[in-house]
Amino acid sequence: MLLWLLVRVVVARCVSRRSYRSDLSDAQWALIEPVFTQWRAGHTGPGTAARIHDLREIVNAILYVNRTGIPWAYLPHDFPPYKTVYDYYAKRETDGTTQQVHDLLREPPTAHAAAPPDRRQQWWTRRA
Question: Is 11 left (phi over 0), alpha (psi -120 to 50) or beta?
Answer without folding.
Answer: alpha
